Amino acid sequence: AQSVAQPEDQVNVAEGNPLTVKCTYSVSGNPYLFWYVQYPNRGLQFLLKYITGDNLVKGSYGFEAEFNKSQTSFHLKKPSALVSDSALYFCAVRGFTGGFKTNFGAGTRLFVKA
Amino acid sequence: EAGVAQSPRYKIIEKRQSVAFWCNPISGHATLYWYQQILGQGPKLLIQFQNNGVVDDSQLPKDRFSAERLKGVDSTLKIQPAKLEDSAVYLCASSSLRTNSPLHFGNGTRLTVT
């Protein structure tokens, strides 16, 4: 069965500093990997995805993520955090079995302090 | 393009009552999903439709939950009778048929069962 782990419930970072939100996954075969962001009282919003090719993918709002097959990780990164980046972030994996079901991690709350 | 529409935004019911949620996906999206998001957890897939057929409903509590997607467009999720543990946000999402396409979420319905 496929699954996603986000080991940190919360990440705290000062504005202007780089941020990393961690994600590891378990799936049979090659995965599709996604990051979503959720603001209060809103649905999830797509940030970026890894399908194949370059291990560093770039997405919305200056976010990027690095795919590491040997470590089965897909960490979300941003070179310089903004207060407005404070939100709940979800990593998700989609495998090639079971109707391409998408499984989400438990989420990591990012808090950026001014 | 118009996003995924969900209604109502909020619903408060007593246990053992019934409730229904409605979702209208992005035009042209063949795949529609219902997720349950309990506070502090990631979204859990309840049911996935492709057009008007069910692809996955393995985590749908079928003794009390039902969903339909007539004509392959909008969808309704029903709970009857509701339990206290059904208190959650119910998210509808849609995507195109491409296996690497991201999910587009509505703003969700927050259900409180008292």
Structure report:
The complex is a heterodimer of chains A (114) and B (114). Chain A has 114 residues and is mostly beta strands. Chain A has strands at residues 3-5, 10-14, 19-21, 24-26, 32-38, 44-50, 56-58, 64-68, 73-78, 87-94, 102-104, 108-113. Chain B is mainly beta and 114 residues long. In chain B, strands 2, 4, 5, 6, 9, 10 and 11 form a 7-stranded mixed β-sheet that branches. The termini of chain B are far apart. Classes of the chains: A mainly beta (114), B mainly beta (114). Chain A binds chain B through residues 4, 32, 34, 36, 41-46, 49, 51, 90, 94, 96, 98-107, and chain B through 4, 33, 35, 40-45, 48, 50, 55-56, 91, 93, 99-100, 102-108, 110.
What value does the Rg of chain A take, in angstroms? 14 Å
Nearest-integer average pLDDT of chain B: 94
Please trace the helix and strand order of chain A, writing H or E for each element: EEEEEEEEEEEE
> What is the alpha-carbon Rg of chain B in Å?
13 Å
Shape verdict of chain B? globular
| Major sheet size, sense and barrel closure of chain B | 7 strands, mixed
Poorly predicted sequence stretches spanning 5 or more consecutive residues of chain A: none
Strand content of chain B: over 45%
Through-space gap between termini of chain A: 41 Å
The helical percent of chain B reads: under 10%
Query: How many H/I helical runs of chain B?
Result: 0
Weakly predicted, low-confidence segments of chain B: none
The end-to-end distance of chain B, rounded to whole angstroms, is 37 Å
* DSSP summary, beta strand count of chain A: 12
